[in-house]
Amino acid sequence: MADVTALTKLIEPEAEALGLALVRVQMFGGKSDPTLQVMAERPDTRQLNLADCESLSRRISEVLDREDPIEDAYRLEVSSPGIDRPLTRRQDYEDWKGHEARIKLAHAVEGRKQVDGRIDGLVGEHVLVHLEKGGGELSIPFAAIASAKLRLTEALIKATAPLSTEGADSIKQEG
After folding, report:
1. What is the arithmetic mean of pLDDT over 18-38?
2. % of the chain beyond a pLDDT of 70
3. CA-CA distance, 144 to 128, in Å (whole number)?
4. Residue range 142-160: average pLDDT?
5. What is the per-residue pLDDT for 173?
6. 9-13 contacts: CB < 8 A, separation 24 or more?
7. Cβ distance 34 to 74 under 8 Å?
8. Separation of alpha carbons 167 and 123, rounded Å
């Protein structure tokens, strides 16, 4: 499997050159069907349109073809993080404060390996989460988080509604 840290170092400047913020670089699928997944967004809208995906995909492909950091054949997938996005950066926990998340931990924190609750922000190197069950607030070291993603709620849908509906399907009523 390819070195994701090295891939990120190659990909991040390409995203930034297009005014995009890199959300996640991940290899999955194993030896038989490897996929390089790249998630990015526009910092001002937290969205990525099709033209952004195409531009980023072309830039990444050119760099990866030139540098050849992945030994075997692979598939490149460039996308937005989506509505129930992964939380991969410290800043995500400030940006999405007040929203519900599911956080899986690399090791138990106060006897928990998974936490469901409302993100209350970031304090130093700790993510604060208001627990869904059992109440109270849990302080989780950022380094202890194995994976995290937002949970789909009405508040999240409202917060992530497209800023532009240009090109959206519409129903024309005949009268």
Report:
1. 92
2. 91
3. 13
4. 92
5. 41
6. 10/63, 10/64, 10/67, 10/69, 11/38, 11/60, 11/63
7. yes
8. 41
List the structure tokens of 19: 């005014």
Contact 63, 10 (CB under 8 A): yes
92-159: in CATH 2.60.200.40 = no
| Averaged pLDDT for residues 141-160 | 92
Other C-beta atoms lying within 10 Å of the C-beta of residue 74: 16
Residue 169 structure tokens = 């399907």
Domain segments of the chain: what residues?
4-79, 92-159
Architecture of domain 4-79: 2-Layer Sandwich (3.30)
